[in-house]
Design brief:
The complex is a heterodimer of chains A (about 280) and B (about 600). Chain A has about 280 residues and is α/β, with parallel strands linked by helices. Chain A contains seven helices and 14 strands. Chain A has helices at about 55-65, 80-85, 155-160, 180-190, 200-205, 240-255, 255-265; strands at about 5-10, 20, 35-40, 45, 50, 70-75, 95-100, 105, 110-120, 140-145, 170, 195-200, 215, 230-235. In chain A, helix 1 (about 55-65) packs across helix 6 (about 240-255) and helix 1 runs antiparallel to helix 7 (about 255-265). Chain B has five helices and 40 strands. In chain B, the strands form eleven sheets. In chain B, strands 3-34-35-36-37 form a five-stranded mixed β-sheet, with no helix packed on it. A four-stranded antiparallel β-sheet of chain B has the order 4-40-39-38, with no helix packed on it. The two termini of chain B are about 30 Å apart. Classes of the chains: A alpha/beta (about 280), B mainly beta (about 600).
């Protein structure tokens, strides 16, 4: 390229950040951000909260610091149209936690991997740990419902496959407080024998439960071709390759710090040799 | 005033104009109690849900001269599904969220704004509603206009002044509860239902006192008989609907508590039988394997007493729904000669692809014929009333199931059909869509918004995605049909001028010959049409045809919500079938009103 500097603007209007790709001789291209605009739910713990108490808030701060730019949030509840109204509307540029294969975004490399987990009371002498447990059909087991017609979480399908239907208790997406919190509460109050919850939520609410709670990764029963584990990455607009690269670099620089935040929040990891469990 | 008359050996309360007309056609059709036939006081025109206007100034000979009389921008750009309501020289239009209610003065040139009422629903409701932020229309009765709001309120407004009379908060959007339907006023009660089954909202129909907004009764669609208002009067036709507390027993324990069966579309009423009819939505939010059983009383039709709400009969179109086949489509009440006898029937084009004819006194299925390509079932067993599912097209976790027809929006979705007593044809706007369910390959992480949809819809046989069909319920066959490129997501209107009107998602508003389907006139509006056309007599005595243009809804969300055409599973998989819609239309809500010069 003949011009020394090429300015790439993500959007013609209202662009809060711009990248300057300076091709000077043979030196590497250096992205320069002016601001890190993060799209976040104002009330979705443990992931994010308007008061900054979610682990994605902390990770966003680490990344912004690494990039040396101010951090700004665009708050919107994660309901239908979240991606469209955030990234799509150019209100912000980064989703801190998305599945690495999420079609709607360009994902960074994953920075953690977690799984659905069995959640039981710590006092349980024989906690549920497997879908092959013969008690399964008789147990009161909580599952998260997805909120799309006919769709179910992978553990929901695993339970059905093992004949656990009668006593399965569904927890809807909407309600008073986060779904996972309601599930752990029900478990603590003896209304459930076990629950199957997405790992990061389980780890967080287990830490804060009124009675001691334990969690263990759930493994899909043989023959169920359905993932129980997901790689989690950051997501940007598909066209924002330079930003994605910058975020990848920041994730690499701050990997230890990010791991520490995840451990602090009790996120069960399946990508670490010694899994971080509370 | 309505008055009784003899027709076909039975008493019906009908207006005189309609009565003479009925006598002439020997087709029992009760349109009571429309205050003046030139008005259009409820979305479906009349309690029988015919969407038939007895006005006939505009006819096959002169429709070519139909031209624009006036237009009005609603100021909202989301999908406009509502019917304009006309009463006493005023037109009432309720917009999609934020559900602004406009009153236009039809007595003055250009129909200027008389008043504007803003109910100010909670903005958070927008992210909760499943299928764009639509509203299906207002209702007028006794000087009051009634609307539902997306955040689950019903509001009564004084028709003359636009002042709020009362509002009833009937649900909580933080629990996923929304409202999109047009209210229906029966006697002194406003009937409304809720939406949100896919989020675990338990369905109900609620009767509110029209004067105060107080709840008179609520009939749940799932749960024990006392909640469903099933008592001694309940006499379903089929044995599968007989028994105690089937709304509990046909589910795993407690699953009914979040079992869906929402009431989000149409209500009919037969004043003579004194029965209200309405359909219930699909069972949600469970996947089918987690809710073994018939899942009563979802995806079916109730007949109830309007005074008390008590159930009189029920029939289940789709027991244990596997494909998102809500049972809420319109029930059109007509009297027809069937097998030598005049029968009081109910016509119902269901999402499952069948055109049902039921005896509306008993709930017996007289016939059920496919009006679209159906692969998910092989017909209805008339002795038992059971839909015969096809195991090959059942969704199977972790497997790809191809050519599921009809697709999730059904052979036909909410878009209401019209009935002409002249031609005795039911005019059905519908889609021609199938789907491949590449099930569960995406990221289902509960409690996060990344719930990958698993459906990819595509055109059905023939390659066209929509169709407008005239169905002869006596002959049990299609009389004619018009293929449309996109799903026909607008309502239909039939007139005594033997014309039928409908709109396309490209924005064409069309008039066709009611007998032949021949295209007689069309007008290109500013945006795709998904609204319900109506016809009324203006204060000047002229016949007008009105429709809202403004693409959106589930089918048009790719435009109204700006969904990504590359994301095949967006919009519940509908986007895959609608990728080219943004190339032919853009959003924008505008009223178009037409008349002869």
């Amino acid at each position: 390229m003949s011009s020394p500097c090429l300015e790439i603007r993500a959007r013609r209007h209202f662009a809060a950040w711009a990248l300057l790709l300076c091709a000077t001789g043979s030196s590497a291209q250096q992205p320069l951000l002016t601001e890190l605009r993060v799209c976040s739910d104002p009330d979705n713990l443990p992931f994010s909260h308007q008061n900054g108490s979610g682990f994605e808030n902390k990770i966003a701060r680490l990344v912004a610091d690494d990039l040396g730019v101010p951090l700004r949030h665009f708050w919107l509840p994660q309901r239908r149209g979240f991606v469209r109204k955030t990234l799509g509307a150019d209100e912000c540029d980064v989703l801190i936690g998305v599945p690495a294969d999420f079609e709607r975004v360009l994902a960074t490399r994953p920075y953690y991997r977690s799984s659905y987990v069995f959640v039981t009371r710590a006092s349980d002498p024989k906690p549920l740990r497997s879908f092959d447990d013969e008690r399964l059909p008789r147990m009161r087991i909580g599952v998260q419902l997805v909120g799309n017609d006919l769709a179910a979480t992978p553990p929901g399908h695993a339970l059905v496959r093992r004949g656990a239907v009668e006593h399965v208790v569904g927890f809807t997406v909407y309600g008073d407080g986060p779904t996972a919190e309601r599930m752990v509460d029900s478990l603590a109050h003896g209304q459930l024998d076990a629950a199957l919850v997405w790992g990061p939520q389980a780890g967080y609410f287990a830490q804060r439960s009124s009675v001691p709670i334990q969690i263990a990764p759930a493994v899909a029963p043989p023959g169920l071709r359905m993932p129980f584990e997901f790689d989690i990455a950051m997501g940007v607009r598909r066209s924002d390759k330079a930003l994605r690269d910058a975020l990848n670099a920041a994730i690499d620089h701050r990997r230890k710090d990010i791991d520490a935040v995840l451990a602090d929040y009790g996120v069960p990891r399946t990508d670490l040799a010694s899994s971080a469990q509370p | 005033m309505p008055y009784p008359l003899v027709n076909g050996g039975r008493w019906q309360r009908c207006r005189m104009g309609v009565a003479l007309f009925l006598a002439a056609t020997a087709t029992g059709l009760c349109a009571a109690p429309a205050p003046a036939d030139g008005d259009w006081t409820m979305a479906a025109k009349d309690y029988a849900n015919t969407r038939f206007s007895a006005l006939k100034d505009v006819n096959a000979a002169n429709v070519k001269d139909l031209r624009l009389a006036f237009t009005f921008s609603t100021g909202v750009v989301r999908g406009h599904e509502a019917a304009p309501i006309v009463a006493g020289g005023t037109m009432f239009i309720v917009t999609p969220y934020p559900n602004t209610l406009w009153a236009l003065d039809l007595t003055k040139p250009g129909a200027p704004v008389k008043w504007k009422f803003e109910p100010k629903p909670d903005a958070g409701a927008q992210g909760v509603a499943c299928c764009d932020v639509v509203n299906r229309g207002a209702a007028y009765a006794d000087g009051r206009v009634f609307i539902t709001t997306l955040d689950s309120q019903t509001v009564a407004v004084d028709a003359a002044s636009g002042k709020e009379l009362w509002r009833a908060k009937l649900g909580n959007i933080d629990h996923g509860e929304t409202m999109t339907m047009a209210p229906v006023v029966v006697k002194d009660k406003v009937l409304v239902g809720n939406s949100g089954g896919e989020l675990g909202v338990r369905g109900w129909l609620t009767a509110l006192d029209a004067a105060t907004g107080r709840i008179a009764w609520r009939a749940w669609s799932t749960g024990p008989d006392k909640d469903v208002l099933i008592g001694p009067a309940f006499k379903p036709f089929y044995s599968s609907d007989k028994g105690t507390d089937l709304g509990v027993k046909t589910w795993p324990p407690d699953a009914w508590k979040i079992g869906g069966g929402n009431v989000w579309a149409w209500i009919s009423y037969d004043p003579q039988l004194d029965l209200v009819y309405y359909g219930t939505g699909n069972p949600g939010p469970w996947n089918p394997d987690q809710r073994p059983g018939d899942n009563k009383w979802t995806s079916g039709v109730f007949a109830r007493r309007p005074e008390t709400g008590e159930a009189v009969w029920f029939y289940q179109w789709t027991p244990h729904d596997l494909h998102d086949y809500d049972g809420v489509n319109e029930n059109v009440l007509v009297d027809l000669p069937i097998a030598g006898a005049q029968r009081k029937v109910l016509l119902h084009p269901d999402r499952n692809g069948y055109l049902y004819m039921l005896d509306r006194q008993t709930g017996q299925v007289l016939s059920a014929d496919p009006f679209v390509t159906v692969t998910t079932s092989s017909g209805v067993d008339l002795p038992t009333g059971k839909l015969k599912f096809n195991a090959k097209t059942e969704p199977r976790p972790g497997e790809v199931v191809r050519d599921i027809c009809p697709a999730a929006p059904g052979g036909k979705d909410w878009q209401p059909s019209a009935w002409s007593p002249h031609t005795r044809l039911l005019y059905i706007p519908h889609q021609n869509l199938c789907q491949d369910a590449e099930t569960y390959e995406v990221s289902y992480i509960a409690g996060t918004p990344y719930v990958g949809a698993d459906l990819k819809m595509k055109p059905g046989p023939g390659g066209h995605r929509g169709e407008f069909s005239a169905w002869d319920p006596v002959a049990r066959e299609k009389a004619w049909s018009i293929k449309e490129d996109f799903p026909v997501w607008s309502g239909a209107l039939a007139t005594a001028g033997d014309l039928v009107f409908y709109g396309t998602m490209e924005g064409w508003f069309k008039a066709v010959d009611a007998k032949t389907g021949a295209l007689l006139w069309q007008f290109k509006t500013g945006s795709g049409i998904i609204g319900q056309p109506v016809s009324y007599q203006g204060p000047d005595g002229k016949q007008y045809i009105a429709v809202l243009s403004g693409v959106g809804g589930w089918a048009g969300a790719i435009v109204a919500s700006g969904l990504d055409a590359r994301d095949k599973t967006a919009g519940g998989g509908f986007v895959n079938a609608m990728k080219d819609l943004p190339k032919v239309t853009d959003k924008g809500g505008t009223l178009y009103v037409f008349a002869l010069p």
